[in-house]
Amino acid sequence: FKGGDTCEYLLSSGRFLGEKVWQPHSCMMHKYKNSEAKNCLIDKHVVFIGDSRIRQLFYSFIKLINPQVKEEGIKHGNIPFEDKSASIKVDFLWYPEVNGSMRQRIKSWTESSVAKPHIIVVGAATWSIKIHNGSNEALAQYKINITSIAPLLEKLAISSDVYWVLQDPVYEDMLSESRKMITNEKIDAYNEAAVRILNSSSRNSKAKVKVFSVSKLIAQETIMKSADGLHLPESSRDTNAMILMNVYCNKIMKPIDGSCCQPQPPLTLIQKIAFCFFTLSIIGYLIISLIHRNNYRKNKSCTDLESGEEKKPAISTPNISTLEMLLQCFCKLGLIMTYFYLCDRANLFMKENKFYTHSSFFIPIVYILVLGVFYTENTKETKVLNREQTDEWKGWMQLVILIYHISGASTFLPVYMHIRVLVAAYLFQTGYGHFSYFWIKGDFGVYRVCQVLFRLNFLVVVLCIVMDRPYQFYYFVPLVTVWFMIIYATLAVWPQIVQKKANGNCLWHLGLLLKLISLLTCIYFLSYSQGVFEKIFSFWPLSKCFELNGNVYEWWFRWKLDRYVVFHGMLFAFIYLALQKRQMISEGKGDPLFSNRVSNVLLFISIVSFLTYSIWASSCKNKTECNELHPSVSVVQILAFILIRNIPGYVRSVYSSFFAWFGKISLELFICQYHIWLAADTKGILVLIPGYPMFNVLVSTFIFVCVAHEISQITNDLAQIVVPKDNSTLLKRLLCIAGFFSGLHFFSAMQDQSRH
């Protein structure tokens, strides 16, 4: 691990994922759009100097700025290009040989009065081999000419980016008779001479000419598809142009999925404060542990000097104090957050782009589903959506979503649409679970609300601080948090209608239905009133939570995508609990949910509905159109699954403990994957062990799951300390939390001001 500058890897090494996707060694390459390329190169002058191969690279480069450009320039002459809207100039200068003419042109830019190009791309050799019939004298002259040019290029490299493009191999069997002397052996000799001279010259220079050698590797894989054996196919030269764009633009544009050539971001003020806090927590915990250990040794069994027998200490080992528990949690959390930072903010570990294949998604899915079946156990209770069953449901859905993310399956629309149903199912459970609790328990106290909010948001708040990311970046947590508050507000607002009250008078059921209809009306109104929605969440302090990249559009999109499913979950819970109260369903062990005839009919309808939705989702052609229908139809497959899972008595009586274990830490798994399993904020894959993809996934997955499990335990322990049951103590803690967020906002404002 050389660490630091990944540009060297981008320019010199990599491999193909599939046929056309190039993966640089150790870092991720961003795919630049035309608008991004223009923003990066605004007011810039780029020059390509060389032969027909450099002309190919020139055309691929300017097509990144303007895809409409056609290759109609003079073959053996200079070709200018200008984008007046962004004041970008890109020139190709025809110098097919490294000779005096090329040297004179380069020398003219070193004059102090002349405007220098910002990027200079140079390369030539095949014409020298062709014209001089591959003679050794031509190679000797080539070395002399490069030696004279090298100091000039280094002088330009002080203020400009200068790249020397090594010569690509040729496909000798396809070369015409006039090019038969251009052999790969000769090309290697010319490349070796260029690299040796440029590297030896740069040792005595402050600036360095960057050697663009990755083109050779790309050509070795693709030159067989060349039309003439000499020039690269279009896809390969486009890859070279994209690499060139990444080398120059990544440090300017800082794309999330372009880790190559990006410097490590400096620590923010809030990150420094967090680092100091965790360091003090670790030191404090170690001091308290040492004090307790010494006290324990003093009270340890000692030998009676007279009888020679051991006596038990009068004082037993003391229980862990609240302070020690608090420091222990923050100590472990500090070490875990250090790992998070090293994985996804420091340039310590490698990152790679995702590449989707059907096998990379479906084979792991089949494997975990088979594995889950082997861990079948009997449930403690046989009610519909009992605790073990909901944990199991969350578990297998989370594992499928994780495989979906690491395999890059979002590019395959049928898979994307089914994953959208899984996300909707999580929100459905949010509606079902919280409605059931408030309806049955009637507990609308502050303690319950604070417990739920703390457990949902603790990890995300810590990550926002440590990883310097906005709250909305972890979109699922804001989503479930807002929906929880909506459910709470709907049921807690006057008149409070709960099951105990409704049992005495059936009219209360009607009142609750009116509340639910009012909620549905509000959801419908907001879903078609983007302006009103954005105004609501643009007010401070909501804007600080829900803005991403300066606006709340992402939050609007995420909310709108599953806007009805929480309501569906609440309505399902209401109907199910009403049927259960009136004993209209049978939930005994092994008994079908309804009578045999009704159960069979409902089971048949559920299976048909489930398959119908899958067929529709698989036939989707346009993501935007399917996303528009998704909020209304996703509930079909969710309800179908619930009925299939619960109508047969035997199926309802068993569950997979394997999936249920993952279900208990599903929230932590979903959030932790952003930084310690995936990389570059989910855009890439973390590489702990380069060169061994399967072994790397096994190791990183093991660490990732262990960390998620540990964070789940830390969150539970801290919830008991931070959110006590005593109302007066809880009020004091809430004032402390308010002070914490006020301080966080103050330091955040200072950060923003210093950045601007």
UniProtKB/TrEMBL annotation:
Query: According to its UniProt record, which reaction does this protein catalyse?
Result: a ganglioside GD3 (d18:1(4E)) + acetyl-CoA = a ganglioside Ac-O-7-GD3(d18:1(4E)) + CoA; CMP-N-acetyl-beta-neuraminate + acetyl-CoA = CMP-N-acetyl-9-O-acetyl-beta-neuraminate + CoA; CMP-N-acetyl-beta-neuraminate + acetyl-CoA = CMP-N-acetyl-7-O-acetyl-beta-neuraminate + CoA
Where does the record place the NXPE C-terminal domain?
A: 22-72
MF GO annotations: N-acetylneuraminate 9-O-acetyltransferase activity
Entry keyword Acyltransferase? yes
Write out the annotated subcellular location: Golgi apparatus membrane
The Enzyme Commission number assigned here is 2.3.1.45
Organism taxonomic ancestry: Eukaryota, Metazoa, Chordata, Craniata, Vertebrata
Q: Which InterPro entries match?
A: Cas1_AcylTrans_dom, NXPE4_C
Record keywords = Acyltransferase, Glycoprotein, Golgi apparatus, Membrane, Transferase, Transmembrane, Transmembrane helix
UniProt domain Cas1p 10 TM acyl transferase: residue ranges? 253-734
Q: Which residues form a coiled coil?
A: none
Which organism is this entry from?
A: Elachura formosa (spotted wren-babbler)
Any single GO BP term: carbohydrate metabolic process
**Protein name, per record:** N-acetylneuraminate (7)9-O-acetyltransferase
Could you say which protein family the record assigns here? Belongs to the PC-esterase family. CASD1 subfamily.
